[in-house]
Design brief:
The structure holds 2 protein chains of 2 kinds. By secondary structure, chain A is an all-alpha fold. Chain A folds into 2 domains: 82 residues, Cytochrome C biogenesis protein (Helicase, Ruva Protein, domain 3, Orthogonal Bundle); 33 residues. Chain A contains 6 helices and no strands. The longest helix of chain A has 29 residues. Chain A is elongated and about 95 Å long. The two termini of chain A are 65 Å apart. By secondary structure, chain B is α/β, with parallel strands linked by helices. Chain B has one domain: 3-Layer(aba) Sandwich (Glutaredoxin), CATH 3.40.30. In chain B, the strands form 2 sheets. In chain B, strands 5-4-3-6-7 form a 5-stranded mixed sheet. A two-stranded antiparallel sheet of chain B has the order 1-2. The N and C termini of chain B lie far apart (54 Å). Classes of the chains: A mainly alpha, B alpha/beta. The interface between A and B is medium-sized, with 15 and 17 residues.
């Protein structure tokens, strides 16, 4: 047991680097200031590569993604805030570059839609169940007649 | 009334089906431009080195008449495919076409123009692609129609085809010239 644990840890530490995806960011793109670089990485992960569409520019090897990564870093070095950099890119490419769509009038259906459908379903279910409760409670079924009662008793007695 | 309620899931299914059918026919590469109806970006690009005759391209040249700005490169195969269409627009259909030469080697661009003809009134060389990012370019070829006030009114991504020219571009040019 004492030997298995270190071995397992070693194996894990050897395989983990292989599991993380290869970085698209090239060494010459990296900013000397680590704080600025980590902001650049965070922004790049939020921006869609328009060539490969379902990758962020941080993941993509496309030439345009590289240009945009460099652009993001240039803007940051020029002193722009994170929001300013995002705005700079969306002014040119639209909301489509944002991997997380913003909450605004044109995206209302996208954000509210699922909850609206859920609510409609809940209302529908509620109305349906309320309608059924009336049936099971027997408010609108007539009580058994004397003849029916006798037949029921006969059937129940037959079982014994 | 109750019976209609039972039809509801079926109707929903039909609705969703139609939405998906139409949705999957759209080209995912066709991203609406954020710049439509906005002024063209301010820029000043030099001419391709070795071809100073027509001068470079700057935003100042884009006002006055309706113009087409075509982003192209010698390494781009669809650009070659659309080149006859661009040439016809410029030489026969009376539309001023400007070129932005995107991330190209000057000698390659010049050879390409010599071989395929040069229909552009002026060409700006965007060697690092920065100006093209200002235009929202994400895949060459792209074409932008600019009105007299220098605003972008129409964008086409991918090679221009005679069909796009006849059905969308030329009617738009006519409309913008009247306005």
């Amino acid at each position: 047991m004492t030997r298995i644990l270190p071995a397992a840890l070693l194996a894990l530490s050897l395989t983990l680097p292989a599991l993380t995806p290869a970085l698209a960011v090239q060494p010459e793109e990296v900013l000397p200031d680590p704080a600025l670089e980590s902001r650049a990485r965070a922004i790049s992960q939020e921006l869609r590569c328009l060539v490969c569409q379902n990758q962020s520019i941080d993941d993509s090897n496309a030439p345009l993604a590289r240009d945009l990564r460099v652009l993001v870093r240039d803007r940051l070095q020029a002193g722009d805030s994170d929001a300013k950099v995002m705005e700079y890119v969306t002014d040119r490419y639209g909301d489509y570059v944002l991997l997380r769509p913003p909450f605004k009038a044109t995206t209302l259906v996208l954000w509210i839609g699922p909850f609206a459908v859920l609510l409609l379903g809940a209302i529908g279910t509620f109305l349906f169940l309320r309608g059924r409760r009336g049936v099971t409670a027997g408010t609108d079924t007539a009580p058994l007649s004397a003849d029916e009662r006798r037949r029921l008793d006969a059937l129940l007695r037959k079982d014994d | 009334m109750r019976r209609l309620l039972y039809l509801l899931p079926f109707l929903l299914f039909i609705g969703v089906g139609i939405a998906f059918y139409l949705g999957f026919q759209r080209d995912p590469r066709d991203i609406p431009s954020a710049l439509i109806d906005k002024p063209a970006p301010t820029f000043d690009l030099p001419a391709i080195p070795g071809q100073p005759a027509t001068g470079g391209l700057s935003s100042a040249k884009l006002t006055g008449d309706v113009t087409l700005v075509n982003v192209f490169a010698s390494w781009c195969i669809p650009c070659k495919a659309e080149h006859p269409v661009i040439t016809r627009l410029s030489r026969e259909q009376g539309v001023t076409v400007f070129g932005i030469n995107y991330k190209d080697k000057p000698e390659d661009a010049l050879t390409w123009l010599a071989r395929n003809g040069n229909p552009y009134a002026a060409i700006g060389a965007d060697q690092d692609g920065r100006v093209s990012i200002d235009w929202g370019v994400y895949g060459v070829p792209e074409s932008y129609l600019i009105d007299r006030q220098g605003r972008i009114r129409f964008k086409h991504v991918g090679p221009l085809t005679p069909q796009v020219v006849e059905e969308q571009l030329l009617p738009m040019v006519k409309h913008l010239r009247q306005g």
